[in-house]
Design a protein that fits this description.
By secondary structure, the protein is an all-alpha fold. The chain has helices at about 5-10, 15-30, 35, 65-85, 100-105, 110-130, 140-160, 175-210, 240-255, 270-275, 290-300, 305-330, and strands at about 60, 140. A two-stranded antiparallel sheet has the order 1-2. The two termini are about 35 Å apart.
Length: about 350
Amino acid sequence: MSTLSDVLRALQGQYGTQGVYSAFSKIFQAFPALGPVTFYISAPFGRYGSSFFKGSGPGFSLPGTPAWFCMEIVSPILLILSTLSPPLSTTHASDLLDPSLTRLKALPYPRVLLACLFLIHYANRAVISSFRNPSRAPMHVVVVVVALFFNTFNAFLMGSFLGGRLPVQLQGRGWGGPLGFWGGILLWAIGLAGNIVHDEILYSIRRNRPKPKEGEKRHYEVPHGFLFDKGFGGISNPAYFCEWVEWIGFAIACTSLTPYHPPTGSTAGTIFSFLATPFKRTLLPSSLAIDTSSLLSFLINSPPWLFVWAEIGTMVPRAVKTHAWYKEKFGSQMPAERKAIVPGLL
């Protein structure tokens, strides 16, 4: 699928559900390219909500919390629908999303666990944070639309991967083994915890700040605590950094999955056998000769790693601009050694 016309035909279902998947994957690969654009054009939400589209009128701004919830809740819903749908086909597109609980019963527990981790993240991101965040600035409708596309592509691709819907050549080979699987999950948990902690620091500032009077701007202050200050001088965007850690851990765990073919019946086994030997194999592959080209392709094109690259590509510019904004606004109040997003480096 090398041309725009191929992608358009695939989106129309001419190449079956496998063609739709390939088209979504091609489109999703382009999201990191939006990053350099946002170095020059700030995404219109948060502190930049009123700096762009100034002449668009109030009708283009949506209430922050409802808009956030609507654009984020798409991810867990679509992940469930995609994970439980039939394997991709090149002949028809009618069962692109056709979930069945019988497929959940047959899904290997490592894949069920990873799907649950994805759902836990978005339960916090879409639902819990909507209640924890005391105030969320209005969002321009463009932000909501782009986020809806991003989450739609990502959740469909991720669900197709976790549900074993992909042809075997597009699945992993268990390169990391159980050690990589459990290590990746540990990294995911550390990242999620860090994300929640640093979000709470910002929420606390918002809860305690004075309510602006009519015509006044929102009150901001320099945040402190944990990675805002610790680790080579701290960083201005620790929630972003922790989210990278979270999804890199998730991707490492996914790299440890072996190919899966959805069976006609349920062969799930017991949760105890899953915890003991999730892959029924040793910690290392049976052969130390790893197909590096297949591994490289997986690290570039598989949905878990596509998500990582998309997150990094789109977050770096905003993190750098946020850091510059803090330095300009607060001057000497900003710790001199604090970086933007990577402790001690960037």
